[in-house]
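B., you asked whether I could sanity-check this one before it goes into the benchmark set. Here's the sequence:
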Amino acid sequence: MIKGLSVMLFAILSLNAYALGTSFLVAPTSAEVDLKKPNTVSFVVVNNGENRIRVSASPIYFPAGSKFMPPMQSISTEKDDYDDLSKYMVVSPKVVSLKAGERRTVRVSIRPNSELTDGEYRAHVLFSTLDIERPASAKKNKKANEGLNMSLSFKTETGVVVYGSKGSGASKMEAKCHLLKDKTKMEIINSGLWRFDGWLTVYDPNNGNKKMIEEKVFLTRQSKKELLLNWVPSADQKSIKIDWVPLDTKLKKTTSVCNVS
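And here's what the prediction gave me:
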């Protein structure tokens, strides 16, 4: 009896579903500013869906170690928001309405105070869909059909990053190496006031500096994280050489030695 009732209910509640596309793009995906003076950066929001949408824009800060950042941990002794740039950012307009194919510009003003110390600061501008206009064809179908009608709207979010620097400097990279059973654990530390975004390259100094491992690494200022490498040094390897190669070719490569314990 219950099975038959379920079939009847399913037949009565026939769904007329309409999927409303909410796809939009934001460019550029990042920006860098000099915090010695006020700045304004612009982002273009493009509605590449089929319906009119409204998109909000707001500054937001993700601390190192939060679930929204790569797995890293802060080593700073300052306040939790020591590199937060969002408190100095003002977005205009905060909401844009876009027809299909339309694009609008959102401007972000950065006005740091004079007490800001030297170093790199960061924040994201989070773009989120607020609502989507229901297409006319879906409205007509709703009137023409009986039963339960349902609109499926897939709201999206995307974040663009803004970096700001006061003064000049660079990351300060080092590593601590620990031998496990069949792997090597590396604790990678950036004690500098600027981020590192580049490659960690490991060489064997006992074998003509032969390249052994190459890993992509990103660390914000004053942070650390662990890497587990599928590699074990030879019995006579007491130390390894590491090159830290930034993606930005304007920055210099640095080298350090990691003692394997």
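One thing to flag: The chain has a mean pLDDT of 84. Otherwise nothing jumped out at me.
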